[in-house]
């Protein structure tokens, strides 16, 4: 909610509705004084009348201070961010700074400034002001958690015609907040939060963050174009559906399950999603979490507009299923994806799922959760049931279309190359991951050498696969059975059983 204070005071001139009536009044007084009062006293009286009755501009002023008590005034920050995009050459002094983790410089005003703006035909004048404080006041810097001494009071004055007050409050201020959010989102550095052991917290795990430098984007991902568009549209729909989620009474979260063989781009897709949405990633390494209570603490310390990632869910930790853990209270089943738990591991799949579906998702907004696995069929059914993961995305082996994208990003080849025919035939007849091909394309600066190397690599892999499958057939084993359930090698895309909410 925005708290507003106006600084305009009722003036004597407000007694008169127009400038014309004030002027008429002054002329009348002057005529009377001319007849009865000596010249010197006349001037004195007229000065007083002018002082109190001079026509005042019909303006309102909003004051936006930097602090509201001890807290930061978000409107001040929004105004500062917004106005820095309106800086004209006439501004003489600016402060610029860059912290270690920033990608660009931050611009701030260095002296009192006036900046004009217009919004739907309303003329607005901003004034940046600061005053020396008699006594410095302490505050905590929200970025660094350091205690800072403020020796000056900084604020903005926003002046406009009085009759535009409603438009300014109801439309211009929300517009300014939204613009500032967009500007900040564009400049935002995506962070990767990983688990670290904090010795000063009794050895418990805490989040530690670094800038996410992963350059993966949707443009560089070798995927079927239509499926890629499907994922982008899904993300766009998710972020703009705040009111929808509220209306239907659902927590504003979305779950994705990425599955497929190693090196097909599951982690790259996560990075592409984070870079696209500018959401931070929380990489939850389950093997480092011992108890449900630790998990809860960690999840509650994740921020809004973030992606919680649990990679290799089938093998990162043995997660006993809900039924067995609730009945026996101890650790559990053998079988696919289940091995014996270490004794001190009091961590359950139900703990994870309950918390994610329940309290965690209702405690924040715009949460995305992504599980990845190489073996979807080994996952606990509790994870796969409809409604749990909203979209199942199958990342599969390289297609010809994917190969074309890789050669354009890695080798800048957009047209044809003499090796393409042979490579495409080889790719169509075998299972090769984008990671393997990408690795070959990086072998040389020279495109011809890289592509010739790729042909050799693919031929070699093909003959290896063929001789392996021959020897397996000799032992009566179907090589398809050893392929982690990967059926065929269709393009990367959504499963037929994808669940859409
Ligand atoms: N679909 C793809 N498009 C473009 N590059 C890809 C793709 N898949 C893999 N790569 C390349 O291969 C590397 C490894 O891929 P990535 O780590 O995303 O695979 P993964 O599916 O997560 O594998 P794993 O199952 O082993 O975790 C990436 O850094 C990227 O360079
Ligand atoms: Mg991965």
TrEMBL record:
Q: Sorted alphabetically, which SMART domains does this protein's record hold?
A: AAA
Mind listing the GO molecular function terms for this protein? ATP binding; hydrolase activity
> Where does the AAA+ ATPase domain lie?
252-399
List the Gene3D superfamilies hit by this protein, alphabetically. Answer: 6.10.280.40, P-loop containing nucleotide triphosphate hydrolases
Asked if the keyword Heme belongs to this entry, the reply reads no
The protein's required cofactor(s) are namely: Mg(2+)
Q: Name one GO biological process term.
A: response to stress
Q: Which InterPro entries match?
A: AAA+_ATPase, AAA_N_dom, At3g28540-like_C, ATPase_AAA_core, ATPase_AAA_CS, Mitochondrial_chaperone_BCS1, P-loop_NTPase
Q: Which UniProt keywords apply?
A: ATP-binding, Hydrolase, Magnesium, Nucleotide-binding
Annotated region described as Disordered, given as residue ranges: 475-501
- Pfam families recorded for this chain? AAA (PF00004), AAA_assoc (PF14363), AAA_lid_At3g28540 (PF25568)
Q: Would the keyword Nucleotide-binding turn up in this protein's UniProt record?
A: yes
Listed under catalytic activity are:
ATP + H2O = ADP + phosphate + H(+)
The record's family statement is: Belongs to the AAA ATPase family. BCS1 subfamily.
User: In its UniProt entry, what is this protein called?
Assistant: AAA+ ATPase domain-containing protein
| Phylogenetic lineage | Eukaryota, Viridiplantae, Streptophyta, Embryophyta, Tracheophyta
